[in-house]
Amino acid sequence: MCGIYLAQVLISRSRRSVLGNAYVAQLMPEPIHSTVTVDGLRFAYSDWGGSGPNIVLLYGLRSSRQNWDLVVPLLRQRWRVLALDIRGHGDSDTPDNGYDMSGFASDLHGFLTALDISNTLLVGHSLGASVVAEYGKSYPSVPCGLVFIDGVMPPPPPPEAREGVLDRFETSD
Length: 173
Known about the structure:
Blueprint: H1 2-14, H2 21-27, E1 32-38, E2 41-49, E3 54-58, H3 72-75, E4 80-84, H4 101-114, E5 121-125, H5 127-138, E6 145-149, H6 159-162, H7 165-171
Parallel strand pairs: 3-4, 3-5, 5-6
Antiparallel strand pairs: 1-2, 2-4
């Protein structure tokens, strides 16, 4: 039930007042900041740990993985939380090309493969939502769920790609 729980957390979070920095620091340990190399490019990411299945967060245009800092304390209660800086953003490499959705999705797949992460929930905000949508289209068997926040809603996949999706949600913890 990975997608349903996340939606509940985000809805409940939106009803609270903004958490102060001191409160966030108390709830959230320092993440491990690291890099992984995919196809010769260095990608920066943060791993806050947590208990449970993996959740990978992607942010919007001209942002960085720190955009998720206020949400992480809530998510890490039930998830291992990671956030990735996509190419050309944050602390990741800035190559001359590859800034299309298929390039971003390929980078995300390389990141997940390099860290041996499977059956993960992918959450994208704005540009990140488009990347997550492209990833779901290109690699439909990998994620356990996709969440789009303030992003373009992709067209529904063909019926053969939808088979078994609900079964994966029902069997995921």
